[in-house]
Structures are given as C-alpha cells and as structure tokens.
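Reply to dn_fold:

You asked what the input looked like. This is it:
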Amino acid sequence: MAPSRWLKPEAYPLFASVGVAVGICGMQLVRNITTNPDVRVTKENRTAGVLDNFKEGEKYAEHGLRKYVRNRTPQIMPSINGFFSDPDLPSN
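and this is what came back:
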C-alpha cells in the first residue's frame, strides 16, 4: 500500500530531473577534486602553498566541451530560428 501512495507516475519526471541534477553536481564535484589545479587533497600537496601553475590552470579551463563548442553557432535550433527570422517568406 505504501509504494502505491508514494510512487505515482506523475512524479517520475520530477525524480528524473532531480536525478539528472544530482548527477551533474556529482560529476562536477569529481571533476574539481581530480583535475582542478587549486584543489589539493593530499597533505604533501597542501604544504606546497600557492603555486604559479598557469599551464595546469589553462588545461583545466580549456576542457574538451569548451573546445568543441567554441566554433559553433550559439543557437539551440538554428533551422527553426532561420525559418522564423527569414524575411523572404511568401506573404498572403
């Protein structure tokens, strides 16, 4: 009786969106811990203090997704945008 009361099909999109948000936060947390040059987990690295590691910071900031979208147009649906903004549409 309890599962039918709490797990309604109307709530599945909510569970999915919260799950995706938690997944994105977890991925960003793991990415920051493992690849961020400013985060030092081990005691040996923490004692080093502030490092001038420009190459490491550049490598972290210029990740693969940023390189992929750099030369793309900033549109989500370019064909629909072109359809509605094209001035050469036939008029009635």
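The mean pLDDT is 80.
Hope that clears it up.
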